[in-house]
């Protein structure tokens, strides 16, 4: 090869290698639904309330499956026993996300503090589905599963006043034209209710799983009509954001919602081995009980039945539990769920 030919070849190699070294690789791969590219989002620490109910499963699934980490979120769970403690903690800035059954306290908090918003579904009554909430009657008194005036008058109830469960009971009494009957009420924790039922000290209660299964297995009776017939599509529980995820911090709220709804879709796959494993770890409920009991229905896109929530507020205001009813704009911000739903795409209920 001549000197000039060799020189030309060297120049070609130098130019080729130099350009290759400077060029940025082009990737056609797309990030997984809900995932943020590494380094794309600023790490954010959040405190999230956890209560001992199975409807909190998506939070545990999001942590265990790495969905929070995908969104650069460092989530710390704050265990609480009573829902009544959660809103004061949020209003005081101790926690950033809380969830629970629809309650009068939620409306009172939203009416006086613009830094709290209802942002997503956390449980609804799916028509004709396995029912995770039920009105239970004591065995020996309600064998047929029907509620009648002669049984209700003078009966002993245990139910939290002003709760969504009381709202459900009132709906049943209205449907059966039993609103003028009388009964006494004593508030007991669920484990004590089962003991009181077995001892004949309580006649009627409204319970969520796993206590519905535990009580019916002890011979106590679900009263008719069931909740999916009486209140189809009613919103029983919701998620709320505090200031750290709202307003100028909406990006954090979007990222949290992406992780949450991705976990809801994993939860909605049902009683898979992985879901049972995670729920057993956090609830300490035996796998065989988790297999038998009814799991709450959750919307895969976080949709809230706003009309249902507003109906609860009307009921609570009539009882004097809500002093100044809030308007929709004070209560809801559905933008986070809408954003996350678009990112994740459609999913089956």
Characterize this entry briefly:
The protein is an alpha/beta fold. Helices cover 42% and strands 15% of the residues.
What's the overall geometry?
Answer: globular
As for the CATH topology of the largest domain, it is D-Maltodextrin-Binding Protein, domain 2
- Segments where pLDDT lies below 50 for 5+ residues? 1-39
Q: Give a count of the beta strands, DSSP E runs of length 2 or more.
A: 10
Question: Ends: how far apart?
Answer: 72 Å
- The number of helical runs is 16
CATH class of the largest domain equals: Alpha Beta
Give the strand order of the largest sheet, numbering strands 1, 2, ... along the chain: 7-6-8-5-9
Please write the string of helix (H) and strand (E) elements. Answer: HEHHEHEHEEHEHEHEHEHEHHHHHH
Report the average pLDDT across residues.
Answer: 87
CATH homologous superfamily descriptor of the largest domain:
Periplasmic binding protein-like II
What is the percentage of strand-forming residues?
Answer: 15-25%
Main β-sheet description: 5 strands, mixed
What is the radius of gyration computed over CA atoms, rounded to a whole number of angstroms?
26 Å
CATH architecture of the largest domain: 3-Layer(aba) Sandwich
Could you say how many structural domains there are in total? 2
What class do helices, strands and sheet pairing give?
A: alpha/beta
**Percent helix range:** 40-55%
